[in-house]
Amino acid sequence: MIALQSALSLAEEYGLPVFPCRPDKKPYVEHGFKDSTTNLDAIDSWWTEYPDALIGVPTGRASHIDVVDIDPDGLGWYTENADKLAAARVHRTRRSGFHLLYRDPAVEIRNSASQIAKGVDIRGEGGYIVWWPAHGCEAVGDLADITEPPAWLLDKLTQKEVPPEGREQVNGPLCEGGRNDYLSREAYRLRKQRMAPDQIFPILSALNSARCTPPLEESEVRKIAEGKRRVLPASVTETDFYAHLPTHSYIYVPTRELWPGSSVNASVVLQNGKPSEWLDKNRPVHQMTWCPGQPIVIENRLVADGGWIDREGVSTFNLYRAPLELDGEPAKAAPWLDHVRKLYPAETDHLIRWLAQRVQRPAEKINHAVVLGGSQGIGKDTILEPV
């Protein structure tokens, strides 16, 4: 039942097509990921027939998501590059690996196995992943915040496959004298990628078991992870910006402010070329608008005179900020409900439904407004404060 609700939510709320998979991750359906759909009736039928099915999500153009799939053998590469991977959404996997989610760029990303490094696979066009957060695994970050891969990673993802002898290999074992220093460096890199110490610890534990001879005590590994709490995460990367072509300035995503190119170049470091030039080529937008319910970048559409213009190859930056999704505590809502009933007894149900609609479905405009009338100081603002 939980898997069904998760599958329906992915399809309805995020527009992600899904399909059912067996425990070994192979599809139940005849054509595999090609049968994936957002049709709620089909999804309900599948999970009624296969109630314990894993949720499969296609990668590439079908979902506009590409995934860097890191197995335990790839943890060394992961920690080595953690400070610059800039993945806004990360899933833990059943095998104690990681899925790093990125928005599908304009160039096609192909599937590959250990091309970038041993234990690091790519799931792009023609691939799929299991959506492990629906099956009890941890997820960090918000789907709405995912960005395209950073420039250096995108270069690697679009390179032709190299022979095995040319691939990056995981280093050998570490003996006494080098273990603490190694794990401390990896913890530092992970912290710079904005991971919390309790997220760093399981990665260090896996590295400790795989590379340290003999492994450090668990308490020592935890101490290393906790010691990085005082390290400040990386503040600004190229994935924090989009190039606004009409003004030749750059949208800083966290605040939606426009930066000049000189400020971007002074704040972001790329191995090759100026960050502003890379943004012009790889993350351009042609317009800005405010549109609730749409993604942060609205592709193949412009807006003019209150209506949409469909145009292939263009994109519009959405200034709208979706409300934070917070888990409520129904038991604590009783005083608020009593307050609403006391002030507006005849309109209580209507008022509560109206407020709920504005929070849950901000993109759907309704045909009337609500004005809270009454004397000053009776608690009208108290009704609005929680919502």
Automatic annotation (TrEMBL):
Domain Primase C-terminal: 168-233
Signal peptide region: none
DNA primase/polymerase bifunctional N-terminal domain ranges (all copies): 7-153
SMART domains registered for this protein in UniProt: PriCT_1, Prim-Pol
InterPro entries on file: DNA_primase/pol_bifunc_N, PriCT_1
Protein name: Bifunctional DNA primase/polymerase
Native organism: mine drainage metagenome
Lineage of source species: unclassified sequences, metagenomes, ecological metagenomes
